[in-house]
Amino acid sequence: MTSIECETRNRLRSSSGLKSCLILVLAAFLFQGCAAVRERAGDTNLMPCRDSEIRTRDGWLLGVRHYRPANPDPAKLPVVLCHGLGLNATFWTITDNHLPQQLTEAGYEVFVYDCRGSGDSTPENYRRLNRILRNTIIPERGERSWTTDDQAFYDIPAVLDHVRSVTGKEQVNWVGHSLGGMLMFTFLEIHPDRHRIANFVGMGSTAVVMPSRDALEMSRANRGLRTILSVVSTSRIARPMRFGRPPGLAYVDRFYYTRDNVDTRTVDRFYGYTLEDPGQAALLQLQPYLTEGRFKSADGTVDYSEQLDLITTPTLFIAGEGDVMADIPSKSWTFDRISSSDKTMLRFGKKHGHQLDYGHCDLVWARSAPQEIFPELIRWLDARQPSIASSQSAPSPQAVRNHFDSEHHADNNAREMLPLRVVIGDGRVKLR
After folding, report:
1. Lowest CB count within 10 Å: 7, 184, 223, 331, which one?
2. How many Cβ atoms are within 10 Å of 277's Cβ, its own excluded?
3. Mean pLDDT, to the nearest integer, of 291-298?
4. What is the dihedral of CA 347, 351, 353, 356, to 10 degrees?
5. CB under 8 Å to 288, separation ≥6 — which residues?
6. Phi, psi (5° rounding) for residue 33?
7. The pTM is what?
8. How far apart are CA 407 and CA 333, in angstroms?
9. What does the pLDDT look like over 243-285, one tens digit per residue?
10. Domain 37-431 classified CATH 3.90.1200.10?
11. How many CB atoms lie under 10 A from the CB of residue 44?
12. Predicted pLDDT at 41
């Protein structure tokens, strides 16, 4: 048998195996239902947030989970943890010794919530219908229309109001991963309630994407994913992959996590419980972010990348040296343009003495994150409790649109590599 014949036969076998796998996946869903996978988890940390249900001003219902400390510290403000796009709140709790656990042990009240398009969150008008669709591979109603602007202007205020009603605290510490941190760029630049964020921690969050081959690949994947989502729920098709994954998936996975850094059980749980549909309108809004490198409003009239100097809230950036989705140059550019006099950027990688070069989700999922990253985050928060942010008058939408620093108009300046700085509260600057 010639080498060409062998190669042809192997391809046919691979194709046949893939078809068989797809048939098994579809059969699994037909018999047990998509939502049943999470309902049978047996652990509330792996299930949709159901401690409370809050209503946004535009009619969405969001699920919230509250982690209460055994010994609460009344001097510490509550912490809200916000997951990224295409995930749900179990993102924070699919590992042992997770961040909510460490925060509560430090005396913090912790709230996690399922953003619109994840968990049981749904438009109130489609609640009954979506409960049925959630057990199929058909996308839920309302999934195609929401944007990240909706998350910033409707979801965040609803969450803040809920936390205030439970704890009596007007302000919170906001910790966001990926898009969960990017939403703060929008909120802290424009929203009139931005003073309610006492401290902001962005993990793998950037307002720009520097040109790279990976950015091009993400842009192509964005377009393809929008097409698929018009027909089928990608996340619910992927649920059975908690039992096993095809080899070709490793190339896609590397954008989320570094395989050698994360336990297999965590990856199994990611596919079985955490993965969600990103939302077509949100993906469309993020297309300029991937192609032009700019984080813009859904209608394109506001460039959030240009307004970063409006942010004066104490800010911590946590960056991974192995992060493909939010690389160091993009995070450094974003960090440098925030105007806060109290801002810190911590980089985690082997050249800084850490065990791993942390990838995007590794910042939360890596087996060494509870020992190397979480304690640093908590120490940073502890040093700023209680922190009463100075109230800022929010600019009008037109003023925001017109707020462009002259140096940002030059493309070369907008893309320049800037030195990484750690700025301490008294104005001293240390280079790292």
Report:
1. 7
2. 23
3. 94
4. 80
5. 294, 296, 300
6. 85, 140
7. 0.83
8. 14
9. 888 777 777 788 889 999 999 999 999 999 999 999 999 999 9
10. no
11. 13
12. 74
Residue-level length of the chain: 432
d(CA 98, CA 119): 19
Domain ranges of the chain: 3-32, 37-431
Does the pLDDT of residue 14 top 80, yes or no?
Answer: no
For the chain, the three-class secondary structure string (H helix, E strand, C coil) is: CCHHHHHHHHHHHHHHHHHHHHHHHHHHHHHHCCCHHHHCCCCHHHCCCCCEEEECCCCEEEEEEEECCCCCCCCCCCEEEECCCCECHHHHCCCCCCHHHHHHHCCCCEEEECCCCCCCCEEHHHHHHHHHHCCCCCCCCCCCCCCHHHHHHHHHHHHHHHHHHHHCCCCEEEEEECHHHHHHHHHHHHCCCHHHEEEEEEECCCCECCCCHHHHHHHHHHHHHHHHHCCCCHHHHHHHHHCCCCHHHHHHHHHHCCHHHCCHHHHHHHHHHHECCCCHHHHHHCHHHHHCCECECCCCCCEHHHHHHHCCCCEEEEEECCCCCCCHHHHHHHHHHCCCCCEEEEEECHHHCCCCCCCCCHHHHCCCHHHHCHHHHHHHHHCCCCCCCCCCCCCCHHHHHHCCCHHHHCHHHHHCCCCCEEECCCCCEEEC
Q: What is the pLDDT of residue 33?
A: 56
168 Rama sector, left if φ>0, alpha if ψ -120 to 50, beta otherwise: left
Residue 75 CA neighbour count, 13 Å, CB half: 7
**Could you tell me the two tokens for 149?**
């602007």
- Residue 179 C-alpha from the chain's centroid: 4
User: Mean pLDDT across the stretch 348-367?
Assistant: 97
